[in-house]
Write a structure and sequence with these properties.
The complex is a heterodimer of chains A (225) and B (379). With 225 residues, chain A is mainly α. Chain A has one domain: MetI-like (MetI-like fold). Helix content of chain A is 81%, strand content 0%. Chain A contains 11 helices and no strands. Chain B has a 6-stranded mixed beta sheet with strand order 6-7-8-3-9-10, with helices on both faces. A 4-stranded antiparallel beta sheet of chain B has the order 2-1-4-5, with helices on one face. Chain B has a 3-stranded mixed beta sheet with strand order 11-12-13. The two termini of chain B are 48 Å apart. Classes of the chains: A mainly alpha (225), B alpha/beta (379). At the A-B interface, helix 6, helix 7 and helix 11 of A face helix 2, helix 3, helix 4 and helix 5 of B.
Chain lengths: 225, 379
């Protein structure tokens, strides 16, 4: 009861922190996709380069986030800029890996048919490879987004704002109501995002495409083809 | 239409997949490339749309060197069907068929009309099928869409790589039959790859047998069955090549139409006079030529009055002249009959197929002299 009182008297502050949190995460995810998607596509052209790139983003992933923030402070100071850079780096592994494996695993028969029908390399990429792996790419983005929501919480340590502020302040002042007021919204945000993106992912899966659901509606909107 | 002149393909690892193959393919001809795996049949086919570049030699389409053409434009003008079909799962059936027309920048009205036309041609309902996704269709339906997609811009040439290989035997037979009917109307120049001799015999105008990258024999199905060029072809054709030949010959070609028949209302002495030429039994027809049954000589009592009508035996086996000899033989075995009446749709007797006529066509010549048995009105 005491918690609810605490929560509702501070809902404006919590709402502001939630928005900050979403903003930082969203900017980071968009940038991570803008960088990761082309990198993931490009490395499908060369096995050696792919191995090296995947190895590097793998290493980044193993650096503890608090350490990475620490490393970025001397270069970029504090605030949400170094936080976003760190988040973008953490987002690379799931995105690049999914784009790469998705495109690499497109049914070779489909590619042969596409080539045999006279599609150019770019047409095959845009009309066959990416649409056919869209759900896998979305899966990578989902994993990255959920992870970044979590890491963004820690980023408040270096002044990125967000719900992490409440959690850390609550811990240092031993105010558990404050801790929970930050932790519960962050957990719900992560769960809700995961669920929403998973739904999107499923509707984009070509194997799930059938008369039911959005795919059919889309076909109808396009007048049958 | 398509000429291959001394075409070879040596892969980077030094493997010679195709070794100086020369081939002339006429417009409207269905040529089947056949051989065991690794014989170079698929490589030969894929060089025609430059999915594989030849190492040496020349390939001409309508007299023009394809190596000088733009490969993308070349492929858009050649229909291509593969065993795995390669339909795009994220596109509806209509979108799949529309791929090449869109690449060729057709108007959307034109594309819509063409999709409708093609689905009808394939025996699929355009209204329900067009909006479906490939995973909602059966294997046979998907393969029909694969063919429809290849026909989309009405290319003069089609390349088909074991298009029916992944289907169950029943759908395969059905699709082969439909495909033959389709080919009779569209008359494409087709290069068809298979390893199935039965399929080759059924579909081909000409069969090209390949082995280790070389053409071993290039001839009509009948010629390949009758005169295999060497042991390899003989083995490939299989020990049942005589039976396979039967599937190629129509009853009409093999039947004997000069047999002697009885009229149902003929008198017994007149009938006995006909039997006196040495026959054991004869078909009886009415005055309109409709077959009524058959009469065995041994049944007739020569002292009896009246017509032979009373001695007519039924039932008897009949077959249409457009069936194959294989079907005729199947019927003979099923019914334990030595002969079958060939009748048209009205039941008019056109001729007779007997074990004798089968022998005459496909049997070894020395056996013929031994066949002295006189059957159903045929010497």
């Amino acid at each position: 009861m005491e918690f609810f009182n605490y929560f509702f008297t501070r809902y404006e502050q919590i709402g502001r922190l939630l928005l900050e949190h979403v903003e930082v995460t969203l900017i980071a995810v968009v940038l991570a996709v803008v960088i990761g998607l082309p990198v993931g596509i490009l490395i499908t052209k060369n096995e050696t380069v792919a191995k090296i790139v995947l190895y590097i983003v793998g290493i980044i992933q193993t650096v503890p986030s608090i350490a990475l923030f620490g490393l970025l402070i001397p270069i970029m100071g504090i605030g949400n800029k170094p936080a976003i850079v760190a988040l973008v780096l953490y987002g690379q592994l799931p995105i690049i890996r999914n784009v790469y494996t998705g495109i690499k695993n497109v049914d070779p028969a489909m590619l042969e048919a596409a080539r045999g029908m006279g599609m150019t390399g770019l047409q095959i990429l845009w009309r066959v490879q990416i649409p056919a792996t869209f759900s896998i790419i979305l899966g990578g983005i989902r994993v990255a987004t959920v992870a970044l929501i979590g890491i963004a919480t820690i980023a408040s340590f270096i002044g990125a704002g967000g719900l992490g502020d409440m959690i850390f302040r609550g811990i240092s002042t031993i105010n558990f109501n404050m801790v929970l007021s930050g932790a519960i919204p962050v957990a719900l945000l992560a769960l809700g995002t995961d669920y929403g993106l998973a739904l999107l992912e499923r509707s984009a899966d070509p194997m799930q495409k059938s008369k039911k659901g959005s795919a059919h509606k889309r076909a109808q909107d396009q007048g049958g083809y | 239409m398509i000429s291959l002149r001394g075409v070879s393909k040596i892969f980077d690892n030094g493997f010679t997949a195709v070794d100086k193959v020369s081939l002339e393919i006429k417009a409207g001809e269905l040529v089947v490339l056949i051989g065991s795996s690794g014989c170079g049949k698929t490589t030969t086919m894929k060089m025609i749309n430059r999915l594989i570049e030849p190492s040496s030699g020349q390939i001409l389409i309508k007299g023009e060197d394809i190596l000088k053409a733009d490969p993308i434009e070349l492929r858009r003008n050649i229909g291509y069907v593969i065993q795995e079909i390669g339909l795009f799962p994220h596109m509806t059936i209509a979108e799949n068929i529309a791929v090449v027309p869109q690449l060729k920048k057709w108007s959307s009205d034109q594309i819509k009309k063409r999709i409708q036309e093609l689905l009808e041609l394939m025996g699929l309902d355009p209204d329900t099928t067009a909006r479906k996704y490939p995973n909602e269709l059966s294997g046979g339906q998907r393969q029909r869409i694969g063919v429809a997609r290849a026909l989309a811009v009405d290319p003069p040439i089609m390349l088909m790589d074991e298009p029916f290989g992944a289907l169950d035997p029943i759908s395969r037979e059905q699709l082969q039959d439909e495909f033959l009917k389709l080919q009779a109307t569209v008359k494409k120049t087709i290069v068809f790859v298979t390893h199935d001799m039965d399929e080759a015999i059924k579909l081909a105008d000409r069969i090209v047998v390949l082995h280790e990258g070389r053409v071993i024999q290039c001839a009509s199905p009948r010629e390949i069955l009758r005169n295999p060029a060497n042991e390899f072809v003989r083995d490939f054709v299989g020990a049942d090549h005589t039976l396979k030949q039967l599937s190629l010959i129509k009853v009409r070609e093999a039947m004997q139409s000069d047999m002697i028949t009885l009229y149902a209302d003929e008198s017994i002495p007149a009938a006995m006079a006909k039997f006196a030429q040495g026959y054991r039994s004869m078909f009886a027809i009415n005055r309109q030529g409709i077959v009524k049954g058959y009469v065995n000589k041994s049944d007739i009592n020569p002292l009896q009055d009246g017509s032979i009508n009373q001695y007519i035996r039924t039932p008897f086996s009949t077959i249409s002249p457009d069936k194959s000899l294989k079907e005729a033989l199947t019927l003979m075995i099923q019914r334990d009959a030595g002969y079958i009446a060939v009748v048209d749709d009205h039941g008019t007797l056109l001729g007779v197929i007997s074990t004798n006529s089968l022998h005459r066509l496909v049997g070894e010549p020395y056996l013929e002299a031994e066949r002295e048995v006189r059957e159903i009105g045929i010497l």
